[in-house]
Amino acid sequence: MNVIVVGCGRVGVELAHTLHKEHTVTVIDKDARAFDQLGLDFLGRTAQGDALDRKALQRAGVETAEALASVTSSDNVNAIVARIARDVFHVGRVVARVYKPSRAPIYAKLDLQTVSSSSWAAQRIKQLITHPGLTSLSITGEGAVQYYEMKVPASWAGRKLSEFLPEGKAIPAIVLRNGRSLLPTLATVVEVDDVLQLSATTEGANSLRTAIHANGKGRE
Q: DSSP characters for 163-208?
């Protein structure tokens, strides 16, 4: 995939390094000195210029890009660049970083995909504090079903998933065991230190939290 990362700050650098070994990555920033943060092991391209300038985006290869992430320190710049990429150059996948979560609904009205690290971090911390045994990873639909991760209580080792997953309310997806990912069924027998990822309804998640709490693995 041909990807453009707009902004070479901490988020841009991390994103570029996450992508560059598997995709063609170009990082654009108006300050050429910012590219020093990418290091010598970065395999992608860099392009100096202001991303609000369409010619700068063209030099970065926006006309052939399949995805663009605008992660500068300015919400306004990120929104404008994302819209230019989507509406003018017809880039298929566009994401803008939002520093102020209160602005996210505004961008949603513009039909822009956004990511707010502060909102994600706050939600993640809340989950770890209030529901340490079962952590929500993502929400589907209108929130009726969510994707969760949990460490299997030691007392459940040697038992089948069907014994503790509420029928019709939770479906196993992945078991992480000793650095490997396994595709489980309800007949899968769990082991000590297994990590289970599953989808569950709100009722199913509450049942699991109750069971985890009863086994001394979580305090609501």
A: GTSPTTTEEEEEEEETTEEE---TTPBP-TT-EEEEEEEHHHHHHH
